[in-house]
Every structure is written in C-alpha cells, then in structure tokens.
Amino acid sequence: DIFGYIVEFSGDQHGSRFIQQRLESATSEEMEIVFDEIVPQYAVQLMQDVFGNYVVQKMFEYGTAAQKARLVSTMEGQILGLSLQMYGCRVVQKAIEYVSPEQQVMFVQELSPSVLRCVKDANGNHVIQKIIEHVVPDRLGFVSAFRGSVYELSTHPYGCRVLQRCFEYLPEDQTRPLLDELHKYVSNLMIDQFGNYVIQFVLENGKPQDRAMIIAKLTGQMNNMAKHKFASNVCEKALVTADPDSRRMLIDEIMTPKQDGLSPIMGLMKDSFGNYVLQRALTVAEGEQKEQLISKVRPHLVNMRRYSSAYSKHLSASKSTVIHRCPGR
Questions:
Q1: What is the pLDDT of residues 192-227, one digit of tens each?
Q2: Which residues contact 110 (CB under 8 A, 6 or more apart)?
Q3: Labelling 236: which of 29, 47, 132, 278 has CA 20 to 30 A away?
Q4: Who contacts 244 (Cβ-Cβ below 8 Å, separation ≥6)?
Q5: Given this model, what pLDDT does residue 320 score?
Q6: 10 Å Cβ neighbour count for 198?
C-alpha cells in the first residue's frame, strides 16, 4: 500500500516504525522494491534523519549481500561526515556489523586520516569503538595514531572508552606500546574523572604484569587515594583484583598507624569516599587480617555515633552492618 511513498514514510515517526517492522519479515521482492525507492538517491539523506536512519539500519540487517553493497556504495566518500553526524553514526555502526570484511576496509580507510578527530567526537567515537570490535586487528593500522596521545585520550570523555576497547579486543603487539605509555601516567590517571576508568579496566582485564605495575604505584598512596573522589574507585578495584599477597599489603597499609601514631581507620570511616574503600577491604580481607581489621574498626563505631549529622549516623550503621555480617561475628 505504501510503495511509492517509502521515502516519505521513512521520515515519519510512525511510518518509519511500520517499515522497520515489515522489513523484518519482507519477501525478497518487497525488500527489492524498498531498496529501489531509497537507493541511491535518498539513502544518505535518510541515514541522517531522526527516523529514517532506523529504516536504513534494518536494510543493512535484512538486505542481501548485493543490496548491502549498493547501500555501501552510496556512502563512499561520505563515511567521515556520516560518522560525525548524530544519526548517520548509527547507520555506520550497523553497516560495520553487517557488511563483508572487504567492505569494512573502505570504512577504515576513509576514517583513518581523521581517527583522532572521530575518537574525540560525541558521535564518531562510537564508530571507532565498533570498528575495533568488529574489524580484524591487522587492518586497524590507525591504532598507531594513538601512540604519544595515551594520556590525552585516557583523560578524554570519549577517548577513554576507545582505549578500553583497544585493550579489550586488540592483540598484544598493538596494545603493548599503549600500555607501556599508560604506565608512565598511572598516578595522575587514578585521580582523573575519566582516566580512573581506564586504570580500573586494566586492573580488571589486564595481564598480571600490568595489574602488578598499577598496584605498585598505588602502594604507599592507599590512604590518600582512598579519600579521593575518583581514585577511591581504583582502590576498590585494586582490592578486588589484586593477588592475595598484594591485597594483604594494601589492607595492611590502611591499618598501619601514621608517623604521629594516629590510626588512618577513623579518617577513612568519616570520609565520604574512603568509607567505601574500607567497606571493600572488610569484604575481601581474609583470616587473621580480617579479624585484625574488624578489631581496629569496632572501637571507632562508638565515636561515629557521636556525630549528629544524618550522614555520620548512616555511615556508622553501614559499618555496623558490614562488621556483624562478617563470618563468625
């Protein structure tokens, strides 16, 4: 009923949804008619449309290899512009998932000269992440462009995501130069609002030697980092992912009295970020060390109850709960 009006309907909220649903079960003949109405004249226009982009995504998902090749040909020379556009970037991502490896190469080649621009773009970064996830690594020469910019990317709201995808999907020969560069800035990245996520990712997913190097940088700074808004997240992740010996060392550090003889425990309990690190330490500590930590926390609970603020009362209650839940208590 709507043949002849496919483009018009694709640009309408309800029309677009109707076409999307029909494409999922369309016959090859119906699919061909839809392609003929959109490709090549209106394809790029719809890719950048708030409703039309979803129709084109379905075409990539359910079209034949020949039909998808026709769609890709309309994008040639325009991949960068589409990747930087709010709706076009979604179509590019879908295309990367569903086109052939040979066609993926075209996307990579067009974006490679502008890869850092894409990485730092609110839309383009999603395209680069999708490429890293779906294109074979030996075709991703653009990763070498990240060298020398690891700190800058780690502290960028979109760059930090792209780096994490690199560490997740790329082989050692491509990630090692980036990780070696990362290790130079670990202390600064721990306290960065975006960099801390990169460090956490390496702690959770990295090789043992990379985790060990990060924990070595954290050693001696545990009490200060635990009270930092962003670094406290790294402290928690380190306590969870560290090997048993390193974990014991980090927990010992937060129990050891300072040079003035004062215990750091009370300071952590009262701190809005440090209290979470202390709670994490209570959950991961084992054996005698756990008993020792509990014995150091318990006397301070009485003092905590003297604070009249709702926050302090809540913190004291949460600490009590954690301690009483410990085995044998």
A1: 999 999 999 999 999 999 999 999 999 999 999 999
A2: 76, 77, 79, 80
A3: 132
A4: 286
A5: 52
A6: 27
By residue count, the chain amounts to 329
Query: For the chain, which ranges sit under pLDDT 70?
Result: 305-329
Residue 308 falls inside a structural domain: yes
What six digits make up the tokens of 85? 């556009």
Tens digit of each residue's pLDDT (9 = 90 or more) over 283-294:
999 999 999 999
196 close to 230: Cβ distance less than 8 angstroms: yes
Residue 91: inside a domain = no
Q: Which domain does 255 fall in, by range?
A: 219-328
Number of domains present in the structure of the chain: 1
DSSP characters over 9-70 = HHTSHHHHHHHHHHHTT--HHHHHHHHHHHTTTTHHHHHTSTTHHHHHHHHHHHS-HHHHHH
For residue 296, tell me if it sits in a domain: yes
- Calculate the CA 305 to chain-centre distance: 39
d(CA 214, CA 14): 52
User: Taking Cα atoms as reference points, which of 220, 226, 297, 313 lies closest to residue 263?
Assistant: 297
Distance of CA 294 to the CA centre of its chain: 35
Please state, in angstroms and rounded to a whole number, the distance separating the CA atoms of residues 211 and 191: 17
The mean of the pLDDT values for the chain is 92
The two tokens of residue 8 are 């018009």
Rounded CA-CA distance 226/278 in Å is 8
pLDDT single digits (tens) 229-243: 999 999 999 999 999
Q: What is the pLDDT of residue 17?
A: 98
Nearest to 16 by CA among 27, 2, 28, 30: 2
Contact 210, 202 (CB under 8 A): yes
pTM, full prediction: 0.89
